[in-house]
Design brief:
There is one protein chain. By secondary structure, this protein is α+β, with helices and mostly antiparallel strands. The chain has helices at 20-26, 48-59, 106-123, 148-165, 171-182; strands spanning 7-9, 29-30, 45-46, 73-75, 80-82, 87-89, 135-136, 141-142. The protein has two domains: 7-75, no CATH class; 104-182, no CATH class. It has five helices and eight strands. Strands 1-4 form a two-stranded antiparallel ribbon.
Length: 183
Amino acid sequence: MNYWRQGVSFDADFKTALLEMEINGHEFFKPGKGHVVGKGRSESWIDYQQVTKYLRRRNGQLSFDIESSEYVWLFTTSGIFSDGEQIWVLNDTETAEKGVRRLENPKKELQSYLVAGEDFLTWQIKEDGKFIYGYYPGLQRILSNYNSVRHFSSVYALLEAIDFTGNYEDTRRAKKTLQWGID
């Protein structure tokens, strides 16, 4: 239930099409009330009111009620990533690597990616040592779900990156995250 991995349209002309990023970024699909992460199906539901409000803002007036649509179309997309200087093709296979850019020269690129990853992890550490795990960008809201596995795997990744980069100044922040987890 964490992420929806397809696009959805409520009309055959795709005027109401939503990319997976829009769906996840706005949290349009919600788990059922009794859902427990990792325990059975989520029995998700679509927040039609929120989707309708978004589509009206994006497209203008809707010509029909999307909730009464007889059919729903699911689709997949392919994409690229650019840093403004280079373009990378994103993986479009239906695997966990979908949407991940393909590395041209992994050994050469590894150093800069580990430095960037370490920087990102340290930026996500709050004053108390807890991580910010992500955002619903369309809602300007921080993800509220938190668990110890995610916390300690992030600490582990940070420590591995510090060891690789030799940037031991970040060790103080890593210790703070360890202490928060232990507490």
